[in-house]
Amino acid sequence: MLHRSGPVGRYGTAAGTGALAVLLLVGIAGSPAFTRWAATQTDPESAAAFYVRLLAWPAWRLDADGQPGGLFAADLRAVLVVVLAVGLLYLLPAAQVARVPGSVSQFFSGWAAYVLAAGLAAVLAALLGPDPSLLAALQDASTGAGYGFLTGWIIGTASLGGRA
């Protein structure tokens, strides 16, 4: 007989493991060191370099580098990606309501949460940033959703590691 604190108790929830993956992805790939390396040390004509540079999209900084609005405006997109992705991972209970329970719904729920979070973060950062405009918000939404689509599989895969 399995006890409730048995093997399942050692693992986090799907949303929790996805949230940890979001923090790691944005924290590492968005770091100043990674973004600098991706911009200078990769061949811009290769698909691998394109993907590495895409991973650095929600870049954050340690200083504002003279950007209008200061450090908060410089890091707004990265902060919003993390906050929105974590919130959506917990709000999208796909595993509980899906007709196909388990791994498939956890994977797609995590992926979808990241696509939505990145697109919405891009829109909000453009509208709340130093030079807000609807055109910039729409253009950034496209970039953010593309980033989320091409990198969200990482979050979806991480979500497989948890229980529903």
TrEMBL record:
The chain crosses the membrane at residues 12-34, 76-95, 107-129, 141-161. It comes from the Bacteria. Keywords: Membrane, Transmembrane, Transmembrane helix. This is Uncharacterized protein. It comes from Micromonospora chokoriensis.
